[in-house]
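Annex B. Sample input.
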Amino acid sequence: MTVVTDLAWLMLAVWMFLLLCRGHFWRAGVRDDDILPPPPGGWPAVIAVIPARDEADMIGATLASLFVQDYKGSLQIIVVDDQSSDGTSDIARRAAAGAGATDRLLVLPGAPLPEGWTGKLWAVNQGIEKASRSDSPPTFIWLSDADITYAPDTLSSLVARAEAGNLVLTSLMARLRCDSLAERWLIPAFIFFFQMLYPFAWVNDPRSRMAGAAGGCMLVRRGALDKAGGIASIRSALIDDCALGARLKQQGAIWLGLTNRALSARPYPRFADIARMVSRSAYAQLHYSPWLLAGTVIGLAFVYLGPPLLACVAHDDAAFPALLAWALMSSMFVPILRFYRLSPLRAPALPLIALAYLVFTLHSAYQHAAGRGGMWKGRAQALPREGA
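Annex B, continued. Sample output.
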C-alpha cells in the first residue's frame, strides 16, 4: 500500500470514529420536542433579560412573542439598551404598549462599556443585577438575544424541563434563518460543526466534562449563577454561551437541544454576512493560538477536503476508501439538512462548505492580528490571552 492509500484509509477511520464515538452528534436528535416532563407543582418567577444594541428592526417581534407566552407564573422583561443609536428603546416601549404590557417591561439604559468586558456580557450583567435587586428576585433568569421570536409555550416547556431535572441551565439552539442562498448553503453546516464540537448528548450528561450552551435562549437558575461568580466570571469571553455553560456545569446539570420553538430573525442575505458572523469568534474558539489555528487548518483540510480530492484523482486502491469517507461524511450531514427542510442532495457539497469555514477561520485570525477581532455593532471585542 502506498502512502496515499494509507492516508485514504486514515480519512475513513476518522469519519468512522466521528460516526460512532462522538456522541452521535450527527443525528441532530437532541431536541425539545421529545416527551416533555410534567408541569411543576408551582411556576417560579422568571425575569427575561435582553441585551440590545441597535436592534430596532428586531426587538419589536421578540418582545411581542414574549408578551404572549402562556406561562402561568410571573414573567417580567428587562431590555438593556446598550447605547443604541437607532431608537431601540422607543421600539421596545411601543411593543409593550401595543400588547398592553407596559407594566411587565423595563427598558434599562446601558452604562458605558468598562475595560475588560465584551459589550453583550456587560449589558447582560446590568440586566441581571437589576433583576436580582427587585422586590421579588426571580428563581430563573431567561437570557434571550434581541432577534429571537418564541412559540407561546417556550417558557413553560423550559421551566418544566429545568424543574424536573433540577437543571441550572436549560438552553435551546434557536433555529436560524435559512431563506437566502447563502443561508441555505452555509447555516446547516454551522449547526453541524457546533454539534461536532459540543455533542449535545455529552453536554447533557452530568458525568461528562463537556459543557456548552446556545446564547440565543438560555434559562439560568439565578442561585447557581451567583455561586458560579455571576456574569463577571466570564466578562471577557467572546464565545460567552459556552463559557457560561462551562461555569454552570460546575454547579449542576445543564441541558442543550435543538428546537423549533425559538426562531432567529437575524438575516444573512449574503455569503459575506455569514463570513462576518463566523469570523467574529472563530479565532477565539482557538484561544487566539497560532498553533491551534495551524492544526485546525491542517485537520479541516485532511478530514473534509482530502476524501473528495483523493476520490477524484487517486488510483483505485486509494480512491475506494476516500470515496467511502466522502459518502459517510455526506450521510452524516443529512439529518441537519432535513431539520432545516433542505434536500439531502446538498450533502456531498459539505467539503466545499467546510473550505468556506476554513477561510472564515483564517480571516478571523487576520482580523484579530489587525486589532479588529470580535467586531460587532462597531466594537472590536476580542481580547488577547492573559500574558500575551
